[in-house]
């Protein structure tokens, strides 16, 4: 797949293409990690207080989560579309499939709510995939680009990894 230049949230054909990749990788063709099934919740996106276009309601919520970023403002938390995240939707599965590759930094971190999440950071390309083990499976939490705003935060998590 080639990068979809100038992708924006209103380009339904391109978003449909990316959603089809996501559905193929995680819904239609599931796979296992260390003998545990990788699960992606099949809920469709329901518009909340986000200002995302109405056509997002035909996509899985997890897909919308991966192609958007939470913004915190005085009005509360909203998600906004990021083309860089959307253009990397097809990176998630290969990163997980090649997680033992030395280019992928893999670590666990105990979150403030007590859950333990697994991080797979492809540092060379500044991309992170996060899973959570919910026995007997793994759940996809998200995949996103690491940027200057969040890099130090994740470096601290990596340094203070669990176990």
Please describe what this structure looks like:
The protein is of the alpha+beta class and 163 residues long. It has helices spanning 12-28, 61-67, 83-86, 92-97, 151-159, and strands at 32-33, 36-39, 68-73, 76-81, 104-110, 116-122, 127-134, 137-145. It contains five helices and eight strands. The strands form two sheets. The chain has a six-stranded mixed beta sheet with strand order 1-2-8-7-6-5. A hairpin with a 2-residue loop joins β1 (32-33) and β2 (36-39).
Give the key terms.
163 residues, single chain, alpha+beta
Basic shape: globular
In terms of per-residue confidence, which ranges show pLDDT below 50 for 5 or more consecutive residues? none
- List how many beta strands DSSP finds: 8
The largest beta-sheet arranges its strands as: 1-2-8-7-6-5
Into which percentage range does the β-strand content fall? 25-35%
Question: DSSP helix count?
Answer: 5
Mean pLDDT: 91
H/E topology pattern: HEEHEEHHEEEEH
């Amino acid at each position: 797949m080639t990068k979809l230049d100038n992708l924006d949230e209103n380009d339904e054909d391109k978003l449909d293409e990316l959603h089809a990749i996501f559905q193929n990788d995680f819904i239609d063709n599931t796979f296992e990690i260390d003998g545990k099934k990788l699960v992606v919740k099949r809920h469709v996106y329901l518009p909340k207080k986000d200002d995302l276009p109405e056509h997002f309601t035909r996509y899985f919520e997890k897909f919308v989560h991966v192609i958007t970023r939470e913004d915190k403002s005085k009005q509360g938390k909203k998600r906004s579309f990021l083309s860089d995240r959307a253009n990397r939707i097809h990176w998630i599965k290969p990163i997980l499939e090649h997680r033992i590759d030395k280019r992928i930094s893999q670590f666990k971190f105990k979150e403030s709510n007590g859950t333990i999440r697994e991080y797979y950071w492809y540092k060379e390309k500044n991309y992170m995939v996060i899973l959570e083990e919910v026995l007997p499976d793994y759940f996809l939490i998200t995949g996103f680009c690491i940027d200057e705003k969040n890099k130090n935060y994740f470096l601290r998590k990596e340094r203070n990894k669990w176990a």
